[in-house]
Specification:
Rossmann fold, globular, eight-stranded mixed β-sheet, alpha/beta, binds N,N-dimethyl-L-histidine
């Protein structure tokens, strides 16, 4: 059985979560952190997004892994402690196990319930790999158990999740990962979405089946639970577009009519018709721009692999 370490949950205390959420909702431009998109249903909806024809990042990244598997495995080397940040259903890491042959797999995710189920199933398939599961909001702080071997730590951050940080936050996050690599032979394998045509990006975040819309609107159910709020998803519409000036896709929820939302402790906010809550940004990079960021964060020997259209990039970087 995978070792499940719920005690490692270092997410902020419920009061603090409520204060942060209320502050975001009361800001002039209302906003929420994208991490709240991932309750259990949100994680399942995101897994469905990854299957959509319009959502190219998952399949493009998977094709890059397949095409360059041997070179990636050579960059990482066998016997690593493979630390999967935002592991979700663990399928991306599991695909690489036969070529990477890690000695230990550490699946880290904010949604501990979701990841624990996946790790337990995976352990049956790969009994030779020691598996650990950590429930942790690693976007805020990356504190790994002291017992975890320092040597040959290889962090895995696929799917261009780095894009959900603003560029300065992304740099700080990469620095935190770099700091967690005190031992020798450590590195980072990361997937990054690249700048491309607006029409392709718009479709990827506003698909024809409405799965991304459901993913975005489900945030309101999660907020209702976290804040004891009275959001009604039917009053809101999904809105997503590429902002070419900021090199990012933005996701918003837009009020269909004038309304007031209330939450516990007497909090409330009036939204005019058409007013929005900014729920996620997904930043896109150039190849060189991202390599520069890795180097600024203290990494070196960056290797990159891409698809023929240069839509997506996988990088491996070593701890300098
Ligand atoms: C998890 N993350 C990289 C996804 C993205 O593309 O920014 C989340 C997502 N949001 C809407 N579709 C997918």
């Amino acid at each position: 059985m995978a070792q499940l370490s719920q005690a490692m949950q270092n997410s902020v205390a419920p009061d603090e979560i409520q204060q942060q959420l209320a502050a975001g909702l009361l800001a002039a431009h209302a906003h929420t952190s994208p991490k709240y998109l991932y309750d259990v249903l949100g994680s399942r909806l995101f897994a469905a997004i990854c299957e959509l024809p319009e959502y190219y990042p998952t399949r493009t990244e998977a094709a890059i892994f397949t095409q360059h598997e041997q070179q990636i495995a050579a960059a990482i080397g066998p016997g690593s402690v493979f630390i999967d940040l935002g592991a979700g259903n663990c399928s991306k890491a599991a695909r690489l196990f036969p070529s990477l042959q890690p000695r230990q797999y550490v699946a880290v995710d904010i949604s501990v319930q979701f990841v624990a189920e996946a790790v337990n199933a995976l352990q049956q398939q790969f009994p030779q790999i020691r598996m650990t599961c950590l429930g942790m909001d690693f976007s805020a702080e990356l504190e790994l158990p002291a017992a975890l071997d320092m040597h040959h730590r290889q962090f895995f951050y696929p799917g261009s999740s780095i894009g959900n940080f603003a560029p300065l936050e992304a740099l700080m996050f990469l620095r935190r990962i770099r700091k967690a690599m005190a031992g020798s032979q450590s590195g980072l394998l990361i997937g990054v979405d690249l700048i491309k045509d607006k029409a392709i990006l718009d479709a990827a975040y506003d698909d024809s089946l409405g799965v991304t819309a459901a993913f975005n609107l489900n945030l309101l159910h999660h907020l209702n639970r976290l804040l004891d709020a009275d959001f009604r998803p039917a009053d809101w519409r999904h809105c997503a577009f590429y902002n070419s000036g900021q090199y990012r896709v933005e996701m918003h929820l837009e009020a269909k009519r004038e309304l007031t939302v209330h939450w516990q402790g007497g909090g409330e906010r009036r939204f005019a018709r058409g007013e929005r809550i900014h729920t996620e940004s997904s930043h896109k990079y150039t190849r060189q721009g991202f390599i520069d960021m890795l180097q600024l964060a203290g990494f070196s020997a960056v290797q990159t692999w891409s698809d023929p259209d240069n839509w997506f990039m996988v990088c491996h970087a070593q701890a300098a």
